[in-house]
Design a protein that fits this description.
11 strands; alpha/beta; 490 residues; 16 helices; 2 domains; binds glutamine; eleven-stranded mixed sheet; single chain; Amidase signature (AS) enzymes
Length: 490
Amino acid sequence: MHEQELNQLTIHEAHELLKSRQVSAVELTQSVLKRTSEGEDRVRACITVTDDIALAEAARVDNHIRTSGEITPLTGIPVMIKDVICTRGIRTTCGSKMLEHFVPPYDATVIEKIRAENAIIVGKANMDEFAMGSSNEHSAFFPTRNPWDLSRVPGGSSGGSAVAVAAGEAIYALGSDTGGSNRQPAGFCNVVGLKPTYGRVSRFGLIAFASSLDQIGPMTRDVTDCALVMNAIAGHDPQDSTSVPHPVPDYTRKLIPDVKGLRLGVPREYLVEGTESEVRLALEASVKKLSELGAEIDWEASLPYTRYALTAFYILAPSEASANLARYDGVKYGFSVPDARNVIEATERTREEGFGPEVKRRIMLGTYALSSGYHDAHYLRAQKVRTLIIREFDRAFERYDALITPTSPTVPFKLGDKLEDPVQMYLSDVCTLPINIAGVPAISVPGGFAGSLPIGVQIVGRPFDEETVLRVAYAYEQATDWHTRRPEIR
Ligand code: GLN
C-alpha cells in the first residue's frame, strides 16, 4: 500500500495489515507524522508532536510483535491524545498557560490501558483552555482550523483531536466530554465521537473541569473503531471512585447492520429555535434511513425539561470548575509569578496571568453561584433541575431504546463569529449537554453535509447501554457513506 494512504486507515484496517505483516508500526507512524508535518501549519491540531518518542515506540512495538506474536486491536496504531489527559513524561498543558510547562509524573488510567496494548502516542491535541469552549478559539496558544473549510472552527473543546482524526494526523484520538466536547467537534469534522455513560471510563489522570459531568471517550473514523477503543478503555478503576464495577462487554458484539424492532424517539425539543435548515434536513433523512432499516420511529417524542438544561449546565459546570480550579495557586502546579512580594499577591497574579478570559468567566460564574446567600437560589436549584432531567430520561427510555437528535443546531461556524458572545457559543452545545447532565451515553456519527460542511447526528442511549447506541450508529453508518469522505486540505 502506498505510504500516503496509511494515515487514512481505520484502526481495524490497519490492524489487519499489521497482523499480516504487510505494514509495520514504524511505517504507520511515519505516515501520520509526515501528514502532520505537511498539514499542521494550516490546521494546527497539535500542541505537542511526540515524533521522536513515537518512532522509538513504534520500532519497539514492531520488535515486540515479531518476537512475541502478540497483537491486540490497538497494538502499533498511532493515537492523538487531547491535552487534558495526563501522559507520563509528555507535557500536558490543558490548553492553558497555567500548565504550559507541566509534565505529569504519571499516566492517566486510559493511557496506561492503551499503553498496555502497545498503542503509539503521536501527540497532544489542541483544545479550549481547561476544556471550556466549543470552538478551540479559547486555547491559550492558537486556534485549530476545520480541515473542511479553514476559515471555520473545528468545534470544541476536543477540536484538535477531531481534526487530527479527520486530517490524517492520527488513526484515532482520545478526547473528553463535559457538555459535548467529543460529539460537537466530531460532528463538525465528520468523525465519530462518543461520550460514554458517566462512570464507564476512568477519569483518573483527566484534568478536572466539572467532575460530575466529565467523561473520556474515543474519537474515530468509524463506529467499529469506536467500539474497539471502548473495549480498551472502559472498566472499573480503583483510582476513580466514580467508575463503576459493571462488567465490560465486547463492544463489537452487537455491531450488526440491523435495527429491526428497535424503538427510536426523535425528541422535538432538540430541534431548537435557530436550528439550521440543513441540519434539520440531515436529521430527517437520517431518521428516515433508520426507519427503512426497520426501526420503529416516534417523531413526536418529548423531553420538556430539556429547555432548562443549558441554564442548569451553566450553573453546575462553572460551580464545579470554580472548586476544581482553586488548586492552581502557583504553589502546587504549573505557572507561578516569580517576583511576588507576598503570598496573596502571588496567588492573585498567578491566576490573573495564568488563566484566559473564558476560564475566568467560568470561575466567577461558579464562585457566585456557590456563594452564601446565592447557593440555594442557583446551585441547589440547578441540582433539582438536574434530578428532573435524569428522571425524564429514565421515563423516555421506558418507551424508546434510543433517541435521535442533531449533534449541534448549526454547521461549523466561522472563526471569530461567536467569540464576543459567550451565550451564542454556549448554545452550540444545546443538544449535547443535557446528555452529560443525565449521565447517559451518546455518540455523534457523520450524518450528511451542507455543501462541504459536515453535519453530525446524535444517538442517545440508556445508562451503560453503549452497545445499543453503537448498534444503531453502526447500522446507520453501514447504510450511508458519509463517514468515508475525507477533507482535502487547501
Ligand atoms: N462547550 C461546553 C463548555 O464550554 C462543554 C465543553 C466540554 O464538553 N468540555 O462548557
